[in-house]
Amino acid sequence: MTTFYNPMPVAATTFTSDSYTGGSVPASFDAFLYKPIDWGQLKLTIRLRIKLRQLPPKPIPIQLDADGKVFWTSPWTGTDWQRFIRGAAAQADMWNNKFWLLPPTTSAMFSEFDLGIIGTNQAQRPNIRCELSVDFEATDNPHRTIDVANLNTQMLALQGQPRDPGTFRSHALLYDSLDTVPWAFPYGPGAGQPTKHYVIAHEIGHAIGLGHIGTILKTTLCEYAIASEKLGYDRFDPNSLGGRNSFYCYGLLQEIAVVGNIMGAGDSFTVDNARPWLWAMMSMGKIPAISAHQWRVVMTDPGPGSWVKK
């Protein structure tokens, strides 16, 4: 059943973080909380404004990737650019219909949206549906500006390089034209390895504040990589190079529940990926830090709400 929402939010915030604590990375986004017109769920929308820019042509049409490797590029055509935008939007949409926040049923907690039943001491406390809305063609005050290189696929073929996102290593501020293609992350095939990785969906997670899955879960290997980088020992173990951006923090050599996460090398989501929506509610003042542990995240629709005593 479709739920209709009042177009005016009941709360709004601009969340900004420059922290690497708790599995987070520096990020900024807007968030809005909407009430339903009926007895449905509340809706919490994270709005992210990203300005994707076509990397302009150069006298020598080459571009360095995140590892400093040289790639030949081509001018963008209007058709190719719109295809890329559609692919990016499809990957951003992977974050939708994944998470719901369940407020505590303690009467003193989050009671402002309770819907009482006349003549009884009961009220319904609405659950909260989490939504992500990304504008990839933002022109005014974008949260992030990202250049996109159009790789020359003919040159890739001549060089014997695969035409997938693993060829050119993108980063937070530089994508490439192949990033809309899902691919197998290069840990090698075999049991326990992810079969699909979505570059833009992964980068969207960073844009709303999530670090790699190893930093979120504080896995032993990721913590080792971070410490190794700080001490300058990461050069002795290639998998720990980059610290929190290392393969270990992507989940290398760890169970599929870790490495297969969207913030690792796979395409699965867990309740840990819902943290930006909890941060948004805390930023709005709707979740006091002291009671944050009483909120729950679920990944199946829990219905409109829970009954509480007034």
What does this entry look like structurally?
With 310 residues, this protein is an alpha+beta fold. The chain has a domain at 11-180. Helices cover 21% and strands 22% of the residues. It has eight helices and 13 strands. The protein has helices at 78-92, 153-158, 199-207, 213-217, 220-231, 247-250, 256-259, 275-283; strands at 11-17, 27-34, 42-54, 62-64, 70-72, 100-102, 115-116, 122-126, 128-135, 144-149, 174-176, 296-298, 305-309. Strands 1, 2, 3, 6, 9, 10, 11 and 12 form an eight-stranded mixed sheet that branches. A three-stranded antiparallel sheet has the order 7-8-13, with no helix packed on it. It has a two-stranded antiparallel ribbon with strand order 4-5. Strand 4 (62-64) and strand 5 (70-72) form a beta hairpin. The radius of gyration is 22 Å and the shape is globular. The protein starts with 10 loop residues before the first strand and ends with a strand. The mean pLDDT is 94.
Query: Gyration radius, to the nearest Å?
Result: 22 Å
Structural class determined from secondary elements: alpha+beta
Q: How many individual helices?
A: 8
Unreliable stretches covering 5 or more consecutive residues: none
- Average pLDDT value? 94
Residue fraction in strands: 15-25%
Q: Tell me how many strands there are.
A: 13
Using the alpha-carbon principal axes, give the shape. Answer: globular
- Cα distance, first to last residue? 28 Å
Q: Please describe the biggest sheet, giving its number of strands, its sense, and whether it closes into a barrel.
A: 8 strands, mixed
Order of helices and strands: EEEEEHEEEEEHEHHHHHHEE
Approximately how much helix is present in the residues?
10-25%
